[in-house]
Amino acid sequence: MRLCKVYGLADGHDPDPLWQDLLAAMTPDWKSEGALHRKYWEWGLGLYGLHKLGFIRPDAVALGVGAGVEWPLFYLANQVQCVHATDLYSPESYFQGLDPTVPEHAAQIAPFPYRQESLLFRKMNALDLQYDDATFDFVFTFSSIEHFGGHAGAVLAMETGWITTEVGRQPFIVYGILRTADAVSPAPGLAFGFVAVAAIYALLTVLTVFVLRRLARSHDVAAPQELEPVP
Fold it and tell me: Are the C-beta atoms of residues 107 and 116 closer than 8 Å to each other?
């Protein structure tokens, strides 16, 4: 397996022994679901990279940032000395399910058996990690960085990510293979299509603002289930 790649349907069948062992240990039933789920692929590739770089070893101490209750936490608990999983773990942060900072809850959440003494859940803001320097051998996060800073921060992070992706690969559409200049379509009528789409979206924007403003000014209307029953 390559460490830097995009997901492919054939990846689940890559014969690399370490890759297959990872999938078998973390998601043993994935083959019964058909293609390898992109989430399992993401977790597996991250752990694969940590193995290849020599960070996953019996004496290692790891930190999960915005960790939630994702399966790599439980996998790593069986592989390293200790894993510190940090997240807000509160309804206000849109976390759902049992609170894993309660020890008996963590055992109920676990997708497979793990060394409970090697996995510690802590309520902690990722923007204010309360650990001393050089505490950990490695730090990891899966699909959480875009949530930092609330909804406004999430939007900014996602937009910045798209800009970085699109601008960073220029002058290529497919890096190293297809240049942007060669990918431009010579088909006629593209300008008309662009103007039409832009006009439709502009109209939808105006209508959306109009409807939302009208709803905001209107009196509250009780939902059917809130109406007083007729005697």
Answer: yes
The β-bridge partners of 62 are 83, 138
- The reply to whether the predicted model has a pTM over 0.85 is no
Alpha helix segments (H runs only) across the chain: 17-26, 38-52, 71-77, 103-109, 150-168, 180-183, 190-217
Task: Give average pLDDT by consecutive 10-residue segment, the chain, 231 residues.
Answer: 87 93 87 86 94 96 93 96 93 82 91 94 91 95 71 77 87 87 86 94 96 82 53 55
Residue 28 belongs to what H/E stretch? none
Q: What sign does the dihedral 33-116-42-21 (CA atoms) show?
A: negative
SS (H, E, C) 141-196: CCCCHHHCCHHHHHHHHHHHHHHHHHHHCCCEEECCCEEHHHHCCCCCCHHHHHHH
